[in-house]
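Aim 2, interim progress: modelling of the magnesium ion-bound target.
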Amino acid sequence: MPQTFRLARQILCLLTLFVACLAAGPSHALSPVSIGREDIAIDLEPAVEIFRDRGRNFQVSTVPGADGIVRRIEVESTAATPSGDWAVFALSNNSDEQIDRIVVAPHFRLASSGFLWPDLGSQRIAAITPSEGFALDRQESPEADVFLVTLDPGAIITFVAELSSDRLPEIRLWEPNAYKDTVNAFTLYRGIVLGIAGLLAVFLTILFVVKGSPMFPATAALAWAVLAYICIDFDFWQKLVPIVPGQERIWRAGTEVALAFTLVVFLYAYLNLNRWHGILSAFTALWLVGLGALGVLAAFDPPMAAGIARMSMTATAGFGLLLILYLSAMRYDRAIMLIPTWLLIVVWIAAGWLTVTGRIDNDIIQPALGGGLVLIVLLIGFTVMQHAFAGGSFAGGLLSDMERRSLALAGTGDAIWDWDVARDRIFAGCDTEGLDGMPVAAMNGPARDWLPILHPDDRDRFKITLDTILEHRRGRIAQDFRVRDDNGHYHWMSLQARPVLGSNGEVVRCVGTLKDVTERKKAEERLLHDALHDQLTGLPNRELFIDRLDSISCLAATRPDVRPTLFMVDIDRFKQVNDEFGIATGDTILLTVGRRLKRVLKPQDSLARLSSDQFGVILMSESDVAAVGAFAETLRDAVRAPITFANQDIILTASIGLTGWTEGAGADEVLREAELAMYQAKRLGGDRIEPFRSAYKTHSSGRVELESDLRRAFGRNELSLAFQPIIKLSTGEIAGFEALMRWNHAKRGFVSPAEFIPLAESTGLIVQLGQFALDEAARRLADWQRLPGQSKLFCSVNISSRQLIRQDLLNDVRQILKRYHLVPETLKLELTESLVMDNPERSAKLLERLKEMGVGLSLDDFGTGYSSLAYLMRFPFDTLKIDQSFLRGEQVPQRSILVHSIVTMAHELGLAVVAEGVDNDTDAAQLRKLNCEYAQSFMYGHPLTAEEARRRLQERGGRRGSA
Ligand code: C2E
Ligand code: MG
Ligand code: MG
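Predicted structure of the complex, ligand included:
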């Protein structure tokens, strides 16, 4: 009961104090403050007059005493270094009894202490001297200057207080008991808050020891900093450590710096900022170093250190708020959880600011702020603890080996496979994700239940593996086998297990993991297949083909009945198909050809795609020469049959090279032979079957060598032109020549243009070659035209595709015409149909320009392609050369009909016709009848050297002249 009463009294005291504070106005005329018996606490500040810089001796007039006399008193400072500031106030006792009061001037007051250059507290009053009697008795107090005043009834006394600091933030007159009660009331509150803060600090520190995360030491540090701050603020520290009056400020500034420091550390550690940006880490480190320096500064200039620390705290709070909001928007859960706490921090700092700047000024705010600080730490503690325990019991890092293993297993997603040998029970983790859709019932039971669900090919292996483990009592099971799922599909499962031995040394169980590895297996199979097969056709590729060829060669070496034949099938002009119809169509056609070839094979035979349009066949099913020949024909026919694509019939032909088995030849060599034979077939015009002859070897080997030789051929003058006469059929006279390139190779002799022209085309040398041909032919022609009666003589020059693509052809022709003063019509350019069709748009434009220049344009080798003449007439040709294949060799009735229609049609379209390869008189007669203008063939004349040609012209001219 007395306790309740005391508490009530204390609260009453506080309230009165509060009201007194509010009521006190700022009046400063020195007049005595009258004291009644009931006055518990009086704010003396309005009644105090401050005198500054008055030196060691201070003189002042007293207020009129009870007798109305004003006296003058002089007070001398007792301090070693007097401040020279003095405060004067007067008290009067109007009652009729003696009154005891105490004058209290607290050392520190937060309210109005200033934000940037704060007053951090100090001793305020050194001594108080009354106008009557002795100096007042100083009472013991760590937090305030307390002096006892005794006023006799009716006394009016003036007091002179010697100030020991330049500010006197508060001075009050208290009823001694009331003061004690107030102090005690605060002490209770402070005790509670301090207790909580201390506990929190200790608790968070322990948490840090248990949990390793940097978030905990950071929080603990903050808690300790708060505890330190409150200890100072609540004057607890002063009770523990004897503090010289001036040092208080250092401690206070020090704790403020510590608060600022730990706040930054906490924000950084809690939000894991090092994870986000290196720059942020560097910035934080810099900031912390700055705050560390501030700690040192606090010892020398506490107000400045405290001011900077406060700014840092404000900045941290503001920046932290922005950061937390941003990270929360990014759904960072730590940031979201910190929002309430941080808002409290911001509010606290705002309240602190309002207080120190004097906007809030009462006695409760200071302890309230202290309590608020503890509340913040409490909230932070909760937030942090949530993280500490949110991770579940495993997150802390203290795991038993067993737990670690089981977690690891759960992490792999594999199913557990546990075979209890004694009871013959297999446990295959039924609820494990790894076994979705598997016949889990059959998998959980005796080992024999597994057999029916295993792939028949894997059953024995499975059985033997288990038996072996039991028998050997060591080793591991590492097996892949197929298990049928509920839908009947097989899954590849990988079992990895190890036997566990019992005390008797027997295997008591086998434990391990089971994993579905179907995807991996499929990928492996696919890789293996891709490594050995062609992607497009799915046929074996070159590597596999050579491998097969190798083993067959080995077999053939020992068995006389094994006589393989190797075919190489290369599609003619396949590039053209690609260019004309597009790569996709080209692929479809290749696929078709591949299938057709496959169809003519027997199971013993192999087919492979060796390169883009090249197929290889190993024929094992036939060894008889005639049968092999027939087979080759079947291959040829298989390619030849029209392929219908987008309502169009595409007819392809193939060049086929073949070679038999030769003793001691390796796979590469045999393949090379077939290739050579195939090239020979190509050289001979394609659509041919060519068996390998050993002569090809020396002939064709060293394509690379030939290439470099061709490059040098210019310098060595090995290239020349031959001129084949073109005869006017009606008169039998030479109407012109076709210029044909000749290469007289130093070692090989004459190399056929059919061999080196494609080579030159593929290497780009053809441009030079073509220029040379044009120039040389024109030069010769100009020379011949000067012979009598030869002014109309013409000369044809073959143009290749590369030349056609180049822009310079027009220029070259123009210059040559100019250089040799040729009549443009007498220079003719020969282009083949396929060449024009390679790029019809461009060709049309180019030919148009050439035509404008006046040069002749001949369509060479007509009939070998598959374009219609009507189509070709979009190009401005003036001459058509019927290909030799129509006229050479045996007479076939259809052929003459064809020739007939070509010539008539050409004439209708206004073209002159040259018949190439006429080799008999009957044809010649027929052509003459058809009014075919010209013929060009060995029958009329082989290609001649320039000199021979000149001589021939002269002879004729001479003959004609003499005739
Ligand atoms: P082409 O333009 O069709 O030339 C006619 C080819 O037929 C020549 O072969 C010629 O010797 C041959 N020939 C002429 N009459 C007969 C005959 O009655 N029977 C037989 N069997 N053949 C006959 P050559 O000189 O071997 O030239 C082959 C091809 O090389 C030429 O065919 C032409 O396409 C190309 N060519 C030759 N010289 C050049 C050139 O300077 N530049 C370019 N780009 N290609 C050239
Ligand atoms: Mg020609
Ligand atoms: Mg020709």
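Confidence is low (pLDDT under 50) at residues 13-28, 392-396. The pocket of C2E (ligand 1) is lined by residues 724, 740-741, 752-754, 757, 770, 773, 798, 800, 830, 860-861, 884, 888, 917, 919, 936-938, 943 (CB under 6 Å).
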